[in-house]
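Annotated sample (chain length 329).
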Amino acid sequence: MLVDSFGRVATDLRVSLTDRCNLRCTYCMPPEGLDWLPKPDLLTADEICRLVAIGVERLGITEVRYTGGEPLLRRELVDIVGRTAALRPRPQVSITSNGIGLARLAAPLAAAGLDRVNISLDTLDRDTFVKLAHRDRLADVLAGLEAADEAGLRPVKVNSVLMRDVNDAEAVPLLRFCLEHGYELRFIEQMPLDAQHGWRRENMVTAEEILDRLSARFELTPDDPAERGSAPAEVFLVDGGPARVGVIGSVTRPFCGACDRVRLTADGQIRNCLFATEESDLRKAMRSGASDDELAERWTAAVRGKRAGHGIDDPSFLQPARPMSAIGG
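Output written by the structure step:
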């Protein structure tokens, strides 16, 4: 098992398949993009599947989520999902995506064994989408959501980041949209993970602000807190349920004490926290001939050193050198 020194057990593996993305969301990267990882540095599909198998079969991983960058840009995605779903014990398999291209891939991914999707949608307004993402692709995202629902990848979850004076007036419209379509909405506080290092706490729309805006239009009742477990979202029933909405207060309402996540970057580095400043290199060890047992030992050691919390409120906090696109969500 992947146990840290505080007794937390990592069972949820986030695997970045690429650092590339076809959007340029302002809270993640500059309009001109970034210097992408060289192809030889990326894990191959076989290497990804080998490490995931070690995690599932030897180390107690029960959920595998493929992320990016944008995971739909990885050509072998359907094959990787299929090989992951074939592992025993079978993990839950999901992806976090911007939804562009999902209209074409939702059915093949479902057939391969994908269980569900998380799709980023920060606005329903085309002009605001272009302002945020520097691409005119809102229609493609909405088509991807619809295709995921039709393919049975439910619950279809929607992730939204509100930015002050940009899209912060859309909390209520976004929730209404998700209620109408049967999607589960999760608002996420903007985190200090942008490549430009331009994040400022005072500019962040907080979880409390989001809940205040929603509560002005909807009756929100806290869902059973016992069912939350290690989930990052505080979940509320909307107008008595069964529809629900979640708020992930990563900054103002940290949930580090129950964290069960560990991350594998596209270039084979284990990160025991989203905000970690240290990594453990499994790619080099693997390509140098390390056995599965040796890789498992390295992985176990990396998780054992996990800190108590991300420390964003600590004056000594340092934003990770890698932006979100290079870490994986």
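Annotation: DSSP finds ten helices and 14 strands in the chain.
Annotation: The two ends are 22 Å apart (CA to CA).
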